[in-house]
Every structure is written in C-alpha cells, then in structure tokens.
Amino acid sequence: LKDTPLDNEKMVLKLKKNIKVKRSDFLGAKLKVWDKDPQYACNIANYMTEQLQVLRHRMKQAKADSILTCLSASRDSVKKEIMILTDSLHRLQEQTNMYYPHSYNDRFAQELSKQVAAGNTAAIERLESKMKQRNEKSSLIALLLIDLEQKSKTMQTWDEHYQQAIMDYNSQIPVDFVAQYATPSYKKDKPKRSLIVILAALACTLIAA
C-alpha cells in the first residue's frame, strides 16, 4: 500500500484522538495512549517518553553549544583588540624610546629643575623644546597603556565566563524524570454486550413511542 495525503491525514487524526496529554501536579505531564492492543499502546507511550527525553537533551545541548560559540567569538574579538593595541604600543615605544611616560616625564621635570636652578638658559630651552616634541606621543602612549589594561580586565572576565560555561556543559544534570513508565491496561476499553443491548432496546422504545 502506498501512503497518500488522505492516509496521512487519517493517521494524524487517529493519533490526536487516541493520544492524550494532560498536565499533572508539579509541572509534570501524564500521557495516555489508546489502542485495540493494550501492549501496543503501552509500547507507544514508553517510546514517546523516551523520544521526548532525547529531544529535550538535544535542545539543551544545542543551547549550550550556542552559548559556548558566542562566548568564544567574544573572547576572540577582545583578544584581537589586545594584540592590535600591544603591537601599536610597542612600535610607538620603540620609536620614542619611552616605555613608561610618567616616569619619563618625572625625570625630565627633575632635569629641567636642575637647569633652572643652575641658570643654564641654553639647557632649559633645549629641554623645553624636547618636552614639547614628546608630549603628544607621551600622552598617546599613556592612553594606549590605559586602554590595554582595561581590555586585559575584560579578557579576564570573558575567560571566567567561558570556563564556567565549559564546566556547565560537561556536567549537565538531566532534568527529565519519569515517575512511572506505561503499563498495559488489564481491562478492555469497551462496553459490555449486555450494556449495548440495554441501550439499544431503550433507544428503540423511545423511537417507537
């Protein structure tokens, strides 16, 4: 037999009619499956329960993978920014021979004070001219150092989040618990023949009247 759209539609309607899901206490769910064969109905219910657990596990794993991917991308972005800042800072420090602007300015100020106290006008002018030339680059180095420090702190935070996400991913605790698996019904889900005869007789009496 070949499946047709009509056959598929009939199957869906039959499934909806013979399978009932009802919410129970504590946010649980109760599944009922009806079929002519009680054991077959039991097998269907247990199969659906197992597949539900598999589906929820896949959904949780997909969500965890997405979180790890986003965290990894953010870490990589910050890491690239740190590498660019570090490279720019090193090149500027080598060009100006200034590695710590604050200490450099302090030494320059001390030397200028000595020359002022000595009354060495030529040395004072030379130092002031040199300070003007290096002030701009000194400020830029200081800004790069501050920015690099902030990026390093941000990178540390992302590392902590990433390590925590990995721990959560590797220690996933199942949240699906089956309180009771399905068992076949001991009684047939059909009315007795005597009850059918009585109901039919009553219906005929009412119609005849």
Shape: rod-shaped
Question: How are strands sequenced across the largest beta sheet?
Answer: 1-2
Helix content estimate: over 70%
Number of helices: 5
Rg from alpha-carbon coordinates: 40 Å
Secondary-structure class: mainly alpha
The major sheet is characterized as:
2 strands, antiparallel
Structure in a nutshell:
Helix content is 75%, strand content 5%. The protein is built from five helices and two strands; from the N terminus they run αββαααα.
Describe this structure in words.
- A two-stranded antiparallel sheet has the order 1-2.
- Helix content is 75%, strand content 5%.
- The chain has helices at residues 5-18, 38-96, 101-118, 121-170, 193-208; strands spanning 19-23, 29-33.
- Helix 2 runs antiparallel to helix 4 (121-170) and helix 3 runs antiparallel to helix 4.
- The protein is mainly α and 209 residues long.
